[in-house]
Amino acid sequence: MTTTDASITQSKTAHRTPRNGATAETAANASLRTDARARLADQTAHTVRDGHWWGHLLDELTPPTVWTDKPASLKELTLYARHAPWTAKDGLWRAAGTWWCGLIGIPVSTAAYYTAWTAQRPSRALTVLLAYVVLAHTGLGAILPYPDWLP
Predict the structure, then answer these.
(1) Considering 25, 64, 80, 82, which has the largest number of Cβ atoms within 10 A of its Cβ?
(2) For the chain, first and last CA: distance in Å?
(3) pLDDT score, position 34
(4) Which of the 8 DSSP states describes residue 65?
């Protein structure tokens, strides 16, 4: 399946609804502004370093800019481990990276993404806390860490 320019333009154009009140012209301009902002964010996400080995090492160890960069999805992490040009297409390093992604990267990222999602809204955090307290008071909650001083 290929994507044509017309389908890209159509998918990025907002439809006029009573909710947004956008005309075709303002929606098209908004789409251009969004694309420009995305390009600007891509250009400022990482610093370009010199070609020495320490520059590549620093690039590898530099965390993403969390203010502007979206975290990679679990699918993107898996595809990177399987197909990205970080090593040969097959061999020991590719197998080790793929296993690491499956055994460590995906489970830890999943827990971190859901923890961040829960912490982003007080209603979510309170709901999870309430569910934890209720579960801790049942037979299933015997394995959960729960302080004795709480009711």
Answers:
(1) 80
(2) 58
(3) 55
(4) -
